[in-house]
Amino acid sequence: MKKEEIKELSTADLQERLEQMQKEYVQLKATHAVSPIDSPAKITADRKMIARVQTELRQRQLNNK
User: Fold this and answer.
1) pTM of the predicted model, to two decimals?
2) Among candidates 46, 56, 47, 60, which has minimal Cα distance to 5?
3) Which residues, including other chains, have CB under 8 Å from residue 21's CB and lie 6 or more apart?
């Protein structure tokens, strides 16, 4: 998901996606702790994507005040 795609989504959609991404991230980290996954770079990419979505949500929150 690119920045433009994130900005096009509604706030409710972003919150749903954020919850889903966080669950997948926790599951991925647990899986990697037990046995190494094929691409550990996916953990970093997922963490950065979560941060991007959180940043967009925070910007929207501040703009609405």
Assistant:
1) 0.89
2) 56
3) 46, 49, 50, 53
pLDDT in tens, 16-55: 999 999 999 999 999 999 999 889 999 999 999 999 999 9
Predicted local confidence at residue 2, as pLDDT: 84
d(CA 51, CA 58): 10
Tokens 């950065």: give the residue: 48
* Orientation angle between helical segments 11-34 and 41-64, nearest 10 degrees: 150
3-state percent helix, strand, coil for the chain, nearest multiple of 5: 85, 0, 15
